[in-house]
Give the backbone structure.
Amino acid sequence: MSEGTRLEWKKAPDELVEFLAKEMKTVKCDYRKMFGYPAYFINGNMFTGIHGETLFLRLADSDVQRIMKENSGVAFFEVMKGRPMKGYVALPKSLYSQPGLFKKWVQESIRYVSSLPPKQKKK
């Protein structure tokens, strides 16, 4: 990317932002924006959020393989094309529109991220 070039990202759909906020109301987590998009953290570690029109989750490697095998349309999450974020998956609407299925995977994400050491704040 040359100097002065900016990445242009799509605005997150209001319905998706509201959906995720509603789902996170009962989860003991912190909210903040990452790159202008909503993201949720446990002990400083991001576990779910939205980027553009994409809802994503962070999972253990074994769960990444399992969710991809069990659900069509799940893909590695990439903020920049060709650069997947390790342990993060992008969820298709067909998965998160099924409340029970979405809750199951959010719980797996919470379980995994809760097992990680707390992220130290940068000075």
Notes: The chain is about 35% helix and 30% strand. The chain has one domain: 14-115. The chain has a mean pLDDT of 91. The CA atoms of residues 33 and 41 lie 10 Å apart.
